[in-house]
Amino acid sequence: MGDVLAGFHAAWEFESDSVLIRYERGIRTPKLLQVLGERRIPLEAVAGVTLTPGRRGTVVLRMEPRPGADPLMEAAAGQLKESGDPYRLVLPAERDVLAEYYAEEVRARLTASGPAERYLVAAPEVPLQFKAYDGKASFDGRTVRFRWFWTGASTAKWKAGDQSFAVAGLSGVEWRSPELFEGYLRLLRRDAAEAQPASPDQDPAAVVFGLGYGAVHESLPFAAAVLAAVRQAQPVPAVPAAVRRDPADIAERIRHLGELHRAGLVTDEEFSVKKAELLAEL
Known about the structure:
Blueprint: E1 3-6, E2 10-14, E3 18-23, H1 31-36, E4 38-42, E5 46-53, E6 58-65, H2 71-76, E7 88-92, H3 96-109, E8 128-131, E9 135-139, E10 143-148, H4 155-160, E11 163-166, E12 170-176, E13 184-189, E14 206-208, H5 216-233, H6 247-262, H7 268-280
Antiparallel strand pairs: 1-2, 2-3, 3-4, 5-6, 6-7, 8-9, 9-10, 10-11, 12-13, 13-14
Organism: Streptomyces glaucus
Domain DUF4429: 12-107, 137-226
Pfam families: DUF4429 (PF14472), SHOCT (PF09851)
């Protein structure tokens, strides 16, 4: 397609296999969208497209991402407000016909549905860092580090000391929005010797948010980048190699099968099927 549809806070450029979204940097644009800057959404990552009435004379064009296709949305786990949803494009109501045209064009190109087996949308680029209430979190693509603040960290965290977590030792990330009560970012360890403390305030593998700390636009891209790195580092299950038979053994079994066939103990059809099975084992 190659056409551009501009709305409030963003413009969508429709291409044959993806939608390139560019977010504005104006003061009215939600900070999360400003930080994201630009995202390319492959159509294979999209489950559907909707066009619905919005508020105050607007319409909303929205792509529905497939579960598991976007690390940002997986980390958010449904906690984003509508205004911060990177898959929404708000337009003046008089552009509804044009918006419906593009919605139909995208729908016609969708070929996949259901959960995605891998991330299809690129994760936020590293390095990333942000300040939480009790410490500073940083991520360089391989290691997550927490450096505690004496003004906010619990005694348990001070005793544990500053922390470093290799991506290979993690199984996931748990993010609770700082816009909700008791928000936090917790790293889920793959082989922890003991169960992680229930309270993030006492868990050296977690940083807690507070008023003005760990804002969504800082902590969510961080969580998404870590989540994507963890997924990429997970070992690919080994596929057992096919067992190859000794050709001499196969030949002997075919010879014996032929004797049974000539003796009338095996039908023509049974002989053909079994011989084909034996030959396939070579």
